[in-house]
């Protein structure tokens, strides 16, 4: 296989900054009254695991939408 394929594969497997941030948020200790907010954050992170968000092939307005949803979900926690 070509070198560019292996490079693309290794790049796709690296965690992005947004996923590292999301993981940091989810591993914090939460109070029980935040369960609904944490579940909302988990749903948003599920959306962020779409292949366009993971490897960065989404158009800019889609990336902005991902960031907006993540911001709103994290500020409620």
UniProtKB/TrEMBL annotation:
The keyword Hydrolase applies. GO terms for biological process: mannose metabolic process. Keywords: Hydrolase. It comes from the Eukaryota. One of its GO terms (molecular function) is alpha-mannosidase activity. InterPro entries: Glyco_hydro_38_cen (IPR015341), Glyco_hydro_38_cen_sf (IPR037094), Glyco_hydro_57/38_cen_sf (IPR028995). Residues 27-77 form the Glycoside hydrolase family 38 central domain. This is Glycoside hydrolase family 38 central domain-containing protein.
